[in-house]
């Protein structure tokens, strides 16, 4: 355990459901009179400093944009919105992990968080914690990088 809030042990059961298969996911309808969101790819393209940015820089910028697009005016996410983002944007990393003690520990720490809002730093710690224990990370590590 790293000592961060996301790694505090707990026995509480997880509350994140499995994400729906991609074919059944639907974008929420735009509220009448609400402006349409600019797609993340266009937002990234508008950041001139990332024009020649590395893949890692662009990946981090994408994470920040996804967070910011869902955050409230104070720059924070509710616990419910955090769980929604995990389901819709991070499903590949959490799918199949629900019964693992480490996953349950991480999600329980989120559930037990005294504040009802998550800031960007805590969101990143949560993402990294979930990614480190996921089966998908092991699969990524096994990708052949040379011929």
Structural summary, described in words:
- The chain is mainly alpha-helical and 147 residues long.
- It has 7 helices and 2 strands, in the order ααβαααβαα.
- Strands 1-2 form a two-stranded antiparallel ribbon.
- It is flat.
**Uncertain spans, ≥5 residues at pLDDT below 50?**
1-30
Q: Residue-averaged pLDDT, rounded?
A: 78
Strand % is under 5%
Secondary-structure content class: mainly alpha
Count of extended strands: 2
Strand order of the largest sheet: 1-2
Main sheet properties: 2 strands, antiparallel
- The total count of helices amounts to 7
Brief overview, please?
This protein is mainly α. It contains seven helices and two strands, in the order ααβαααβαα.
Secondary structure: elements and pairs:
Layout: H1 40-45, H2 55-70, E1 77-78, H3 79-89, H4 91-94, H5 101-112, E2 117-118, H6 120-132, H7 135-141
Antiparallel strand pairs: 1-2
Question: Keywords, please?
Answer:
single chain, mainly alpha, 2 strands, about 150 residues, 7 helices, about 45% helix
């Amino acid at each position: 355990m790293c000592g961060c809030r996301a790694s505090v042990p707990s026995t509480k059961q997880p509350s994140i459901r499995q994400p729906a298969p991609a074919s059944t996911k639907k974008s929420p309808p735009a509220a009448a009179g609400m402006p349409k969101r600019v797609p993340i790819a266009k937002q990234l393209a508008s950041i001139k400093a990332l024009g020649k940015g590395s893949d890692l820089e662009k990946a981090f910028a994408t994470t920040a944009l996804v967070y910011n697009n869902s955050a409230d005016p104070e720059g924070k996410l509710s616990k419910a919105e955090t769980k929604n983002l995990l389901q819709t944007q991070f499903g590949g990393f959490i799918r199949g992990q629900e019964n693992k003690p480490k996953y349950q520990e991480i999600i329980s720490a989120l559930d037990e968080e005294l504040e009802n809002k998550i800031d960007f730093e805590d969101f990143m710690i949560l993402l990294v914690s979930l990614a480190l224990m996921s089966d998908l990370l092991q699969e990524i590590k096994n990708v052949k990088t040379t011929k």
